[in-house]
Amino acid sequence: MVRSGAKSPEMLMKRSTMEFERSRRKNALRRDATIGSAEREIARVFRIPGRCVRLVNKSGRKARSDKLVGALLRDWGW
Q1: pLDDT value at position 35?
Q2: pTM of the model
Q3: Helix/strand/coil percentages in the chain, nearest 5
Q4: Residues 47, 26: Cα–Cα separation, whole Å
């Protein structure tokens, strides 16, 4: 019999998982970061395979991995 105030292990695990998800950084990338590191960071934060993330130039072509995020934003008019 479980008291009404007691929390089950499943509830505690769910809560800690939600707190973990909330604490992940999902804001802005640094402008001096490279495109390659930005793509890896996006894949890590959203837990998707790295090959699924692609940052593109305004022309639609994939941006070089050594290009800076600031240069990409400038190309897009930001």
Answers
A1: 97
A2: 0.64
A3: 45, 5, 50
A4: 12
Tally of domains in the chain: 1
Domain presence at residue 42: yes
57 found inside a domain: yes
d(CA 21, CA 54): 23
User: Which residues lie closer than 8 Å to 53 by C-beta, 6 or more apart?
Assistant: 39, 40, 42, 43
| CATH code assigned at 56 | 3.10.20.90
Average pLDDT over residues 17-45: 78
Cα three-residue angle 61-67-71, rounded to 5 degrees: 90
What whole-number distance in Å separates Cα of residue 29 and Cα of residue 36? 12
Domain hosting 56: range is 27-75
With residue 42 as reference, give the H or E element that holds it.
helix 35-45
